[in-house]
Amino acid sequence: MQKQFSKTLMLMLILASLGAGCSSQNISKNSSVDVSRSGKSYDPCELITLADFSADFPNQTLTQDKHDTTANAVGQKICFYGSKDDMYFVQLSIISNDDIPASKQANGLTAQSQYEQILSMIAGANSVDGIGDGAYYAGSGLRIGRGLSVLDNAHGVYFTIDIGLGVGNDDQAKHLTMEKNLAQKVLERL
Questions:
Q1: For the whole model, what pTM was predicted?
Q2: In sequence order, which residues have a C-beta less than 8 Å from that of residue 143 and are 6 or more positions away?
Q3: Among 53, 54, 142, 152, which residue's Cβ finds the most Cβ atoms within 10 Å?
Q4: Dihedral of CA 149/150/153/157: which sign?
Q5: Could you tell me which of 114, 165, 111 has the C-alpha nearest to residue 139?
Q6: What is the pLDDT along the chain (190 residues), one digit of tens a residue?
Q7: CA nearest to 111, candidates 62, 68, 70, 74
Q8: Closest CA to 49 of 67, 71, 73
């Protein structure tokens, strides 16, 4: 199921990059972005580590199940930690302008445009203040657009943190609190 989610997310991002206009639903605070390359490419498993969240999963053993250090066609890299039982997981997906192929950037594909395109497809996304240049939360679970998505124009990145607290755990406030804490750590490491 985890591999299927990653494949589905990747397909959605590719489809989103081919879409026409973007709608930010007033969640993006800064509509212009400098897409010049800073030479910085990020390793998602260095931006979020087991030590960052192991205390939040005291009775679970999460292991690193996926570590993409080579960006896909839209500049996305993924780090996934999961347990063998009951859908406990933490996933960081990051898209960096520096990892988007220049030919795609020339056609308008940026971290910001992808953030806005995915946001336009998510019904019920809620703005989250105080994180990056824009952030939204669309609930927990392994579905497209779920988790906390954050735009950071200064570093030319868009990332999503999604956690799972076990099958049937629908405590959205707890999910969001944990995801915000992890997002702050990611922003500090950019």
A1: 0.79
A2: 5
A3: 152
A4: negative
A5: 165
A6: 444 434 333 333 333 333 333 333 334 334 344 444 455 899 999 999 999 999 998 888 899 999 988 889 899 999 999 998 788 999 999 999 999 999 999 999 999 999 999 999 988 899 999 999 999 999 887 677 789 999 999 999 999 999 999 888 889 999 999 999 999 999 999 9
A7: 74
A8: 67
